[in-house]
Amino acid sequence: MNILRTLELVNKYSKCPDCGSEHVANGAGTLTVEDDIFIRTCKCGWSVTVKDKE
To answer: Suppose 24 and one of 7, 14, 29, 47 were both cysteines; which one would form an S-S bond, judging by CB atoms 3.0 to 4.6 Å apart?
Structure first.
């Protein structure tokens, strides 16, 4: 995933729409960016997965 697309998704999903948390790490949520996948999770159970074609 290219850096511009990653930044776009980070801005879009930086805040959990369910509980409003902006934190990741230490059990508060996760952020995973790999080849063509972006995953953002939150401690409240919300998650989003975006898979881009490269």
So the answer is: 29
Residue with tokens 């989003």: 48
pTM tops 0.85, yes or no: yes
CA–CA–CA angle 34, 44, 16 (5° rounding): 60
CA dist 51 and 21 (Å) reads 23
Counting every residue, how long is the chain? 54
Q: What angle do CA 29, 33, 37 make, to 5 degrees?
A: 110
- 28-47 pLDDT, tens digit per residue, is 999 999 999 999 999 999 99
